[in-house]
Design a protein that fits this description.
Elements lengths: L7 H17 L5 E7 L4 E6 L6 H12 L3 E9 L4 E9 L5 E9 H4 L10 E4 L1 H16 L1
Parallel strand pairs: 2-5
Antiparallel strand pairs: 1-2, 3-4, 3-6, 4-5
Amino acid sequence: MTAALVPLTGVAKLAAVAVAYVRDTPAPEPVHLSLDPGFHRVDVQPDIPRADPVGVLGALLIWTHRLTGVTGEWWHTPGGELHITLTGRGPCGVSFLVYSSIPYRTARRHVALAASARESVTPDELYRLALELRKGQTK
């Protein structure tokens, strides 16, 4: 006999919240979705090609626009990525962590981070970065 570490009713409720949130968010399908019942959290990675950094930033913003108390962090990974996470509170008090990355080289004119450095970031800063990157694409 096995004993569940987390009651399955908690998993079912978390799954129901995740399904409803994904269904009701007008955003690209997630490429990865995981439930973490121990932290009452849903992790979402939008399915946007890294070659489209403006699309990646837009997807992060769309996936988090309905959350409250959104905080973020970005870091320059040793592999040359700008990894971005946004966390906020969703329906029924469930925490959502939405994440993706873009090549750091595409953002380095606007984001000064040493390799392996981390920094907090706001949704407004991500929006402004997307606008700047988009301007660069249209020139």
